[in-house]
């Protein structure tokens, strides 16, 4: 009887063990999903490292690259937001410390002597110059640039623009030349030189008095204009700043391209792209489709609403049909 009791207990323990394992298996399936639904890792053990600037777009735009590659089955090393400057970021990819970055085609004027910078004011023209240069000299591939152009531009409130019929820089020049009141807030570096404000003045035919019509303030000061502080009614901004919608502001179009273009461009080491050529097919349509409105929305979600970059990127890519 004692022997039979021991056997019975062992059988019972065995049944309990099977039941526990079965329940554990059910819990694992619910928490991780069906393994068959997960894309097969195409570069297992060979992650693609992606670095971007430590500013808003380093996260908002950089995460588009990260999440698109993950969704398509690539293992990545996410270093978005880690580079303190464009120079640091570029040096990292030149030194093969990272595999991918994203940069702006307008920044390329400081990477090599391309002669006349007018090429970098035209969509795709400056991009082609730096694309060919970096491919030949540095074995870097600039993928397709965005339609979006995050250049320097003057902004004002939507209410003020509507009241004074100011939509573009021709309208702004007319407003100035007719004696309209101007208090333009700008960093000191944008006041002088062949480009920037002097270039706009020459191209559009107006002149601002530096003592009475400009206010020097470092950084970007759109909130001062939105609040009318110190009589400010115009300011220098980046075209796709996330704060513009929040502050009910609008940019004044620059149809003659006084400023250089700053389109978003993923850049990848040729060695890596040769191993995984599909990456170009994944990212080119995403970036070519980014408009100024799209970029401003992405930046607003991260900068103003404080949402995590990966969450915003996944939402955007899903809405645009790049994710299911």
TrEMBL record:
Lineage, highest ranks first: Bacteria, Bacillati, Bacillota, Clostridia, Eubacteriales
Classification via PROSITE patterns: PROKAR_LIPOPROTEIN (PS51257)
Domain ABC-type glycine betaine transport system substrate-binding residue range list: 47-319
Cellular compartments per GO CC: ATP-binding cassette (ABC) transporter complex
The protein's name: ABC-type glycine betaine transport system substrate-binding domain-containing protein
Domain of life (superkingdom): Bacteria
GO molecular function, one term: transmembrane transporter activity
């Amino acid at each position: 009887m004692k022997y039979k009791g021991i056997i019975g207990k062992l059988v019972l323990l065995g049944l309990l063990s099977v039941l526990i394992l079965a329940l554990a298996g059910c819990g694992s399936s619910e928490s991780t999903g069906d393994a068959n639904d997960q894309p097969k890792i195409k570069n297992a053990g060979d992650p693609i490292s992606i670095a971007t600037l430590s500013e808003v777009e380093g996260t908002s735009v950089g995460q588009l690259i990260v999440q698109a590659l993950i969704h398509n089955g690539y293992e990545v090393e996410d270093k978005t937001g880690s580079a303190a400057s464009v120079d640091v970021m570029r040096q990292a990819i030149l030194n093969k410390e990272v595999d991918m970055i994203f940069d702006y085609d307008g920044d390329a004027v400081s990477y090599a002597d391309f002669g006349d910078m007018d090429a970098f004011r035209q969509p795709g023209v400056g991009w082609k110059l730096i694309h060919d240069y970096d491919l030949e000299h540095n074995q870097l591939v600039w993928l397709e640039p965005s339609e979006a152009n995050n250049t320097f531009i003057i902004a004002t409130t939507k209410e003020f623009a509507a009241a004074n019929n100011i939509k573009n820089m021709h309208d702004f020049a007319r407003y100035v030349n007719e004696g309209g009141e101007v208090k333009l807030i700008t960093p000191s570096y944008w006041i002088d030189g062949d480009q920037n404000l002097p270039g706009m003045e020459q191209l559009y035919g107006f002149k601002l008095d530096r003592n009475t019509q400009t206010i020097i303030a470092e950084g970007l000061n759109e909130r001062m204009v939105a609040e009318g502080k110190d009589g400010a009614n115009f300011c220098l901004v980046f075209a796709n700043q996330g704060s513009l919608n929040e502050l009910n502001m609008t940019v004044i179009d620059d149809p003659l391209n006084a400023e250089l273009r700053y389109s978003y461009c993923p850049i990848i080491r040729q060695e890596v792209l040769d191993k995984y050529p599909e990456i170009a097919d994944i990212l080119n349509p995403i970036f070519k489709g980014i408009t100024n409105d799209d970029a401003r929305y992405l930046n607003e979600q991260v900068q103003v609403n404080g949402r995590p970059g990966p969450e915003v990127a996944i939402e955007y890519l899903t809405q645009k049909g790049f994710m299911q």
